[in-house]
Design brief:
about 280 residues, alpha/beta, five-stranded parallel sheet
């Protein structure tokens, strides 16, 4: 008769061979629990398998969050959804459902600086990853540089194929920094390749009527908008800047001298382009 010590050694080695580390670590503990609670063999096995599945799911989520490049502090819990208009609140729930990813639909979020566009999509991205979807977050500026480098090294197709592994691609601040025609051509190539194949989630503080300044050409602009809008959820955050409101609250709570002047200065810095300020000059190529 095989001794208990031998059984334990063989079982441990077999579980290692089968790549079941969680079961290997907890099967004795669960066995004692089964004895105390007089669990059936099936219940015992179910508990072991469930622990293994939960651990693997947690590890997979952690890995996908790391690959996504999403800042974990920008979570749904940290997002003040109470500031959203009623329609935007309903649209947020639609995004969190995740069905739009399966339909390869896009999500376009517009609003003034500080309105919460980026935080909203970052929070949505994290929640979708926890539901098993692969997401990627990048600023438009960083995306442009990666695409340009790949193009110069004749690896643009390979990079776009790499992006295609992600069901949703979050592109932050489209149009915030003025790019050259060559830079926006590679962005258009990416958008065209993802059309009806993978979802694009983007933020912009510029309405469609000003996108000629982004893509530098009316035909390219129209083609880009057409691909993005065809299957899309468009969210408009016409709300005040969260940063501006927070700064004004701090000034008022401090009650310091010159608070009105400080608030006025903050307000001028946060005004959108449409309020009479000129956009920054184009970046030199």
């Amino acid at each position: 008769m095989i001794q208990a010590a031998n059984i334990k050694a063989e079982l441990t080695q077999s579980l290692k061979h089968l790549h079941l580390p969680t079961i290997r670590e907890c099967y004795e503990e669960v066995a004692r629990q089964a004895e105390r609670e007089t669990l059936s063999y099936e219940r015992y096995l179910h508990e072991l398998v469930q622990r293994e599945c939960d651990e693997r799911s947690g590890n997979r989520t952690t890995k996908m969050l790391r690959e996504s490049q999403l800042p974990l502090e920008k979570s749904l819990e940290a997002f003040d959804a109470r500031r959203l208009p009623a329609k935007a609140t309903r649209q947020l729930r639609t995004l969190l459902d995740g069905g739009f990813l399966e339909r390869a639909e896009n999500a376009l979020v517009f609003g003034n600086p500080g309105s919460g566009k980026t935080h909203m999509l970052q929070a949505v991205g994290q929640e979708l990853i926890r539901k098993g979807h692969r997401m990627l977050f990048t600023s438009c500026e960083m995306l442009v540089q990666e695409l340009l480098i790949a193009k110069r090294e004749l690896k643009l197709s390979k990079l776009i194929k790499k992006y295609s592994r992600f069901e949703g691609m979050i592109i932050d601040d489209l149009g915030y920094i003025r790019q050259t025609r060559e830079e926006m051509e590679v962005v258009f190539t990416l958008l065209a390749e993802r059309y009806e194949r993978g979802s694009v989630l983007l933020t912009s503080n510029l309405p469609f009527s000003k996108w000629d300044g982004i893509f530098k050409d009316p035909m390219t602009t129209a083609a880009a908008i057409d691909r993005l809008v065809h299957h899309s959820i468009i969210i408009e955050l016409n709300i005040p800047s969260y940063r501006l409101e927070h700064a004004k609250t701090n000034v008022q709570s401090l009650g310091c001298e010159g608070g009105d002047a400080a608030s006025a200065s903050i307000g001028r810095e946060e005004l959108p382009y449409g309020a009479g300020l000129r956009p920054p000059p184009p970046a030199s190529s």
